[in-house]
Design goal:
This protein is an alpha/beta fold. It contains 3 helices and 5 strands; from the N terminus they run E-E-H-E-E-H-E-H. The strands form 2 sheets. The protein has a 3-stranded parallel beta sheet with strand order 1-3-5. It has a two-stranded parallel ribbon with strand order 2-4.
Length: 89
Amino acid sequence: MLMLPAELTHAQAPACERMLRQAMRASAGGVIVDASALQVFDSSALAVLLACRREALADERGFAVLGLPERLRGLARVYGIDTLLPEPV
């Protein structure tokens, strides 16, 4: 499982995305991102999650997000992308 940090804003997004991509390459199977630690974030967090989703799907792997904060899920709804960030089954 991949873990998001407590803070993920525009300033942290590039480094966080690199870290997550490296972790994805080192693991097998579906990708689950745990977002439950997120406390400070902006729309860059959604961009990072979508980048991970694109890479997972390109590798024909499943993708899900666990513990997405409600405020961030609401932002995803506003952008019309909430269905692209499913919870694990």
